[in-house]
Amino acid sequence: MQQRNGESRNGTPGQERAATEEQGITNTLWRCVQWRAGQMLNKVLFNTRSEAESFCAQMHRAEPDIFWRVEPIEARLVWN
């Protein structure tokens, strides 16, 4: 239960929510990086690996000469 000052009774604010993976919340984001001729052209972030791989597969079908790489990154590196 959330207290009025923002702290939960069981710990820090939002700790219960962030700890449950059933809701799909993790500390890992999946980044799709678009490469062509050795240069990075675009980056797209996804919450799950399956979303990222699905996106890369769709993009590969649309433009097979452009390579997309899927890589996990920590959320703390993206947001403060």
Identify the notable features of this structure and list them briefly.
80 residues, disordered N terminus, 3-stranded antiparallel β-sheet, alpha+beta, single chain
Layout of strands and helices, then pairs:
Layout: H1 15-19, E1 28-36, E2 39-46, H2 49-62, E3 67-74
Antiparallel strand pairs: 1-2, 1-3
Would you write up a description of this structure?
This protein has 80 residues and is of the alpha+beta class. 24% of the residues lie in helices and 31% in strands. The protein has two helices and three strands. Strands 2-1-3 form a three-stranded antiparallel β-sheet, with helices on one face. It is flat and about 35 Å long. The chain starts with 14 loop residues before the first helix and ends in a 6-residue tail after the last strand.
Q: Tell me the Rg in angstroms.
A: 17 Å
Q: Span between N and C termini?
A: 25 Å
- What kind of sheet is the major sheet? 3 strands, antiparallel
Shape: flat
Helix-strand topology string = HEEHE
Relative helix content: 10-25%
- What number is the mean pLDDT? 75
Task: State which percent range the strand residues make up.
Answer: 25-35%
Can you summarize this structure?
By secondary structure, the protein is α+β, with helices and mostly antiparallel strands.
